[in-house]
Every structure is written in C-alpha cells, then in structure tokens.
C-alpha cells in the first residue's frame, strides 16, 4: 500500500468529493485508528438504552406534552450529561507518559509584578516602577518531562508506544507533527481546548524557571538559554514529584468538569 501523509489524503478526498469530503481532523483520527489496527471507518455497533419522547408517545399512546409533565412534574426526572470516567492506569502505563512544550527565553525579561512588589506600611506611597521592554534577542527552548523508567528504556525501544501529552498549540496539531506521531505509533493524550495550564510545563516548569531569570540582563540569547538550563537542573527532586502529582490531579479535575474551563484549582 502506498504511504501518503494525512495532508495528501485529505487533499485527495477534497478533490474527489469536494464539499462532501470529511474534515482534516476526521482524516487525522482515521490515521490514528489505522495505527491501532482498526480498519473500519464505520461507527462501532452499540445498543443505546436511552428512550426518547417519540418512543414514549408511541408505546403509551399519549402526547409529548403529557409525557413532559409526567417525567418532570410528577417523577422529578432530570436530563444530565454522562460523566467521563477515567481508566485506572497501571504503574507501567504511567511510566509511558511524556509531556513537552516550548517557550521563548529572552536576553532580558523584566521582573514580574509579583517579583517587584514590596511591603508598605499604612500611609506610605506605593512603589513606582518604570516599565521596561524586553530585549529582542531570544531563543526558543523545548522541555520534555518523563518518568525515569521510560528514559532508561528509550535508547532501546525509541518512542513507539509512548503516551504524549501537550497542549493544542499550532505546532502540536500541524499535519507534519501528526504524521510523525502516527508513523512512530505515539498515542496522544487528549487536551481540552480551554485548559492551557493542564500540562506541567505550563503550570509549573516554565513559570518557576522564568521567575528565577526574569530581571537579569544576559549578554546574548545563548547565555539566557544556558541560565534557563542551569535553573532547570537546579530544581530539587521534591519539586518534580509535586509537579507530577499535580499533573494527574489537574487531569482528574478536568475529567470531572467534562473538559470545561475552570479558573481555580
């Protein structure tokens, strides 16, 4: 069978079926299913135990208004969305999860508002701070976090069978990225669109390290990158443990909220 990318497949479908062609996201999902050896594009057969108003009306031979009154006023029935229940992951499965993200490191990044805050007594004037701009010189860094057990297996097994969790940035959802992940049998952990601080890099790693180097003027972007790396390796082991614990706690909260955005943890 000729190997073609997700983008090529979608282009071919659009050329043949035009407005009736499936979306690119659907084609991407098909590719992931094919990698899992599921070759049928049809929905899997399943029995739906739910009964709708039409079925009630046909069986009881009464109108929909009467059914609505009986269900809600007399029986107190409410319509609720199904709750997502996560699978319990084994220790070995947890070891296969990796998370990553990218960020820009600037040659000079001003102090954050929290860093420049000071204590004042009643009657004292609040501090005044001159707004300083970032220095343009910058370098992009990528950080990957995984359990030590997987890191030790990686040289032998590569990335096949890996569970990857990252946000929905354009670089992560690009066709080239998805093609690479599918070709290497990497399974993506779903990330809801409105929870940017769900991955460890976003809620802990990048904010913690940037707070250490903000306000420092570096001679070059490379010096800023080296400072970032030094701050990364200086994080204590306990910080990483709490980071991973918080990661799974946040994912559970996201599941409990059915993927909806929540502001406070």
From TrEMBL:
SUPFAM superfamilies for the chain: Ribonuclease H-like
InterPro entries referenced in this protein's UniProt entry, alphabetically: RNaseH-like_sf, RNaseH_sf, Transposase-MT_Hybrid
Source taxon at top rank: Eukaryota
One GO molecular-function entry: nucleic acid binding
Protein name from the UniProt record: Histone-lysine N-methyltransferase SETMAR-like
């Amino acid at each position: 069978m000729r190997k073609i990318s997700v983008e090529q497949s979608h282009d071919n479908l659009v050329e043949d079926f035009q407005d009736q062609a499936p979306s690119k996201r659907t084609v991407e999902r098909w590719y992931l299913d094919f990698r899992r050896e599921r070759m049928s594009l049809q929905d899997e057969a399943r029995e739906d135990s739910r009964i709708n108003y039409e079925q009630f009306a046909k069986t009881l031979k009464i109108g929909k208004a009467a059914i609505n009154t009986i269900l809600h006023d007399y029986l107190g029935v409410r319509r609720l969305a199904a709750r997502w229940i996560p699978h319990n992951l084994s220790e070995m499965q947890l070891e296969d999860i990796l998370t990553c993200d990218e960020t820009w490191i600037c040659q000079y990044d001003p102090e954050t508002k929290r860093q420049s805050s000071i204590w004042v007594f009643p009657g004292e004037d609040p501090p005044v701070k001159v707004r300083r701009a970032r220095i343009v010189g910058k370098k992009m860094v990528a950080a990957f976090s995984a359990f030590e057990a997987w890191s030790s297996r990686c040289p032998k097994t590569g990335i096949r069978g890996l569970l990857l969790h990252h946000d929905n940035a354009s670089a992560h959802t690009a066709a080239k990225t998805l093609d690479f992940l599918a070709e290497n049998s990497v399974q993506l952990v779903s990330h809801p669109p409105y929870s940017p601080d769900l991955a460890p890099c976003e809620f802990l790693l990048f904010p913690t390290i940037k707070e250490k180097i903000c306000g420092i003027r570096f001679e070059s972007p490379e010096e800023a990158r080296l400072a970032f790396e030094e701050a990364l390796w200086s994080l204590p082991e306990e910080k990483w443990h709490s980071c991973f614990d918080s990661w799974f706690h946040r994912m559970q909260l996201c599941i409990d909220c059915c993927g909806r955005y929540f502001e406070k943890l």
